[in-house]
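Justification of resources, computational component.

The compute hours requested in this renewal are based largely on the per-chain cost of generating structure records like the one below. Each record pairs the submitted sequence with a full structure-token output. That output is archived, and it is also reused by downstream analysis tasks.
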Amino acid sequence: MVNAYRKISINKLEFRVPKAPIHERIQLRIIPEKESGLSEVRFWYKDQFLGTQIVKNSDLNIVQF
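The structure output for this chain reads:
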């Protein structure tokens, strides 16, 4: 859920999503790249693309890729 500062957090990692509506749930689509060790996190709200950010796979700490 997007907070009042238009930020979301996942596993203590905070993302800024300036175009996201406040207090709404947005969808995250995470595309990992094993070779580079980076993941692209895409933000969507009701079929509208809000933006993307690149993070280290180790920072996401979700699953081993």
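Helices lie at 57-60. The chain has a mean pLDDT of 91.
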